[in-house]
Amino acid sequence: MMDRMAPRARVIAFLVAPPFELLNLTGPMSVFSKAKLNGKEYYTIKLLSTVRSSMAYSTSGISLSPVTYFADHSGPIDTLIAVGGEGSMATPAPEVLPWIRNRFNHVNRIASVCTGAFLLAEAGVLNGRRVTTHWQHVDELIARHKHLRVDRNPIYIRDGKVYTTAGTSAGIDLALALLEEDLGHAIAACVAREMVLFLRRPGNQAQYSSLLAQQADVSGTPMRELPSWVTSRLEKKLDVHELAKVVSMTPRTFARQFELHFRTTPARWVQSVRVEAARQHLETGEIALKSIARLTGFRDEQALRRAFLQQLSLTPKEYRERFSASISATGSVKV
Questions:
Q1: Which has the least CB within 10 A, 55, 81, 89, 232?
Q2: CATH architecture classification, 210-323
Q3: What pLDDT, on the 0 to 100 scale, is given for residue 27?
Q4: Could you tell me the fold of the domain covering 10-194?
Q5: If we measure between CA atoms, which residue out of 24, 81, 92, 29 comes closest to residue 58?
Q6: What residues pair up with 57 in beta bridges, in sequence order?
Q7: Whole-model pTM?
């Protein structure tokens, strides 16, 4: 690791292909800008553009400066981050791709936020790697780039020194993870609290809340009330017969319709909803695991533990230690 007494040693360069998504840039940029060591900023942030212009323009109509034309940047780069947006999915200027390939050989890390993966893929630096992007654009990434191992579920993936993320806010999760790699858990937790980010999600967490996704998928169907009904009764018995009554179907018809809409079995779905509820308890309080198991409908603490390992590859205890908002509650870290 680089000398921690040199707070400006790490240069974070954001590469934008206008028009870019504003939050894809400003979210992770805010994380890095708040990182301080011994009272001094630890990172130097550079904004590079694939277009020669005094401003970098976003899809929202807001332009940012100062910006440097990518080919004019001559200094070192520790972490190069390709920012997603409409521009990153378009055909880049020919001179951009060899520049990315050359920089790839010299940077400590290279990353993409959202559809920034398309730009890195065009440069060939993602070939053969496990990657992700926004769930709405996964199929297009697969169709365009056959040499990638695309995973549509995680919010971010690390494969060697290459990091790729899902949509928008996942860039913030990645920035916090990189900050933790560089400066440790305590400082990353302080930045998360300052930004009112109570949870730094593990990379293998699904791209979106299961409840939000389910409510969107089943709106306008007989299943539309099921997610909210289940979450208010997690401590109850929730088998196929009970769920079928809610939507006025026979158990057989319900099971068939459920798998059609939810793309999983009722038992697995109920477990995922219970795990999501348990995560919220672990993130926001110090409730005993035995009580959390009871509140969320698990038979006992061991059943809760097995469900967490299956879905998150973490035990409830490990999850709380890593992602609880109560960690270092004094709100300050001294290094």
A1: 232
A2: Orthogonal Bundle (1.10)
A3: 94
A4: Rossmann fold (3.40.50)
A5: 24
A6: 63
A7: 0.65
